[in-house]
Amino acid sequence: MSDAAIGPDILDLLHESVISWDRAGRILSWNAASEELYGWPAEAALGRVAGTLLQTSHDRLLVEPDDELWRAERWEGELKRRTASGEERIVDVRWTTERDEAGKAWRTIETARDVTDRAAAEEALRLSEYRYRNMFEAMAVGFVEMDFTAVGAMLIPLREKGVTDLTAWLRARPGFVRKTMARAIVVDVNEKALQLFGGSTKSDMVGGGSGRYWPPTSEPVYIEALAATMEKKPHLVCETRMRRLDGSEFDTLFTVSWSAESRKRGVVLLAYVDVSERKQAEAALQQLRAEFAHAARISMLGELTASIAHELNQPLAAIATRGEASLRWLAADEPQLDEVRTLAAEIVADVRRAASIIDRVRSMAEPRPPQWAPLDLNVIVEEVLAFLRHELQAQSVSIERDLAEPLPLVLGDRTQLQQVIVNLAVNAVQAMSEAEAERRILRVGTRRTDNGSAMLVVEDEGPGLPGDASRLFDGFFSTKASGMGMGLPICRSILDAHGGDIEAGNRNSGVGARFTVTLPPAPDLIPRS
Amino acid sequence: MPSENPISVVEDDESLRSALVGLIRSSGYTARGFASAEEYLAVQDGLCRCVITDIQMPGLSGIEMIARLRGMGYPVPVIMVTARTEPAIEAQAIAAGALCVLRKPFEAEALLDRLRGALGESAGSP
């Protein structure tokens, strides 16, 4: 049966373009789909040389496909062609050679599909992949590509089991967390990452799990990153500490990100920016602040010497008195051992009281690095008022308290915050030294601000502050006759380190100064099971 | 022979107050403690034989207390004890009517001597 029997009608039903040409390239047949694809009606195409009409070109042309074809009988590939209106089309073609009875090739039949859009998408992807690869390899940021599919398989079922707070669930299961680290596989790293982690070739890191890079102290950050990835919260950024291949640790800015594309493959991108130097500078500054604050505390204790001595004298006097009384009881005609026993116990209690006074002084005086803990400002206020009890009495200053309950806890160093309040109170007392006794009122108040911070206010009835109160926080500016005037600048420095603020002004009533300290609330504590 | 009328100890520091009361009792006297000048003034009935008081206390000071006592017509002898070291304080206390001022920490013997002196007893008696 000749193909004339199948006939042009069938060919016209096909979606694919079917054309044929002779050895000279002249078009012998042209179906309806070809008309649609190329815009040439059959009458215009028949007899024309196909390659010329369609302006065929082939990107990867090494030999004319015809040569290959006449040798090989078949050819498949993609060609670029132009339609009648000049538009470029990419077509996926298949050519077949037909031979006559003598075996001589006489006709080529082509079937073709328009794959222009698909080709454009592939090209865009290739370009994008090329750009990504360039950036990945060349950037001064350490990149690590991780395959998270196995980890995803561990975590996805949890949601179905009803786990709603993934972060809390993971925090309670450190063993499970370590397993996910082992299953998160490094797929690729760039030069910078190798440098950061102390590897020499990619194979030092690629193919391995990630557990070795996360010291236990950084597990909370890892858990956050896991949860963010699972909950599709992109672009998590935070500081953390990572471990190098040799076990040493470094501080880094860390971020997890992904594209929709990479996510489908289960791949996420971790980026690391070395911040060791910055951390060192921060640590040095912190150290300097602590030393400064310590110097200020020593100086302040010097000013309070008389009152501290007075406070110590009470238990000492009590001890001496009880000792004498004991001797008397023992010297009596009938020694009163029960009385002596009681007195001895009371002496021990007095000694303990003296020791705690000395402890309080010592903790103010010794240099110590800041120790951060959640603190109740009201408690610290009371501690300071107890510490200054004798000084206040000696100066005949009375106290008015207005302490709000409950007060948001703040995160801070107890000694440093005590130092600030002592400083403000002592300043207030000194400001009122000229006033009459009845007018010497020290007011201390605390409250919660609208945005949840803790606020402390210290007011006096002294002469108030000069117009430009901001100078008070500069160093070496003082309206007092003695002292270096470093107290308030150091208070500001301490507040800065605590993320808080201190302001100076005059009271609304016009008499006396008012100092306001604000501190941010302590972050919610995470219960550990 | 313990007298009916007590020695009054006015001292806001609880431990020192109880120590003083104990010391005076160990010497054979009756003693009562008061935490503040106000507390003492509220109950004082003119029968107290001697007052031993701190100078620096919250509320009325010891010196103010003597002034009140004298104002009320009570001549009771007052011995002052203090941790304050300024010389002016002693002068002030004496001027107000105190018998003497002892510095803390004081020798118990010295206090008892002054006490006996205030009570009109000879030194060295129990």
Layout of helices and strands:
The complex is a heterodimer of chains A (529) and B (126).
Chain A: H1 3-13, E1 17-22, E2 27-30, H2 32-38, H3 42-45, H4 50-53, H5 65-72, E3 74-82, E4 88-99, E5 105-114, H6 116-138, E6 142-147, H7 149-160, H8 166-171, H9 174-183, E7 185-189, H10 191-197, H11 219-230, E8 236-243, E9 249-257, H12 260-264, E10 267-274, H13 276-303, H14 305-331, H15 337-365, E11 372-375, H16 377-387, H17 389-394, E12 398-403, E13 410-413, H18 414-431, E14 441-448, E15 454-459, H19 487-497, E16 501-506, E17 513-519
Parallel strand pairs in A: 12-14
Antiparallel strand pairs in A: 1-2, 1-5, 3-4, 4-5, 6-7, 6-10, 8-9, 9-10, 11-13, 14-15, 15-17, 16-17
Helix pairs in contact in A: 13-19, 14-15, 16-18, 18-19
Chain B: E1 7-10, H1 14-26, E2 31-34, H2 37-43, E3 50-54, H3 62-72, E4 78-82, H4 87-96, E5 100-103, H5 108-119
Parallel strand pairs in B: 1-2, 1-3, 3-4, 4-5
Description:
The complex is a heterodimer of chains A (529) and B (126). Chain A is an alpha+beta fold and 529 residues long. Helices cover 45% and strands 22% of the residues of chain A. Chain A has a five-stranded antiparallel beta sheet. In chain A, a hairpin with a 4-residue loop joins strand 1 (17-22) and strand 2 (27-30). In chain A, helix 16 (377-387) packs across helix 18 (414-431) and helix 18 packs antiparallel against helix 19. Chain A is elongated, with a radius of gyration of 42 Å. Chain A starts with a helix and ends in a 10-residue tail after the last strand. Mean pLDDT of chain A is 85; it is low at 60-64. Helices cover 42% and strands 17% of the residues of chain B. Chain B has a five-stranded parallel beta sheet, sandwiched between helices. Chains A and B meet through helix 14, helix 15 and helix 17 of A and helix 1 and helix 5 of B.
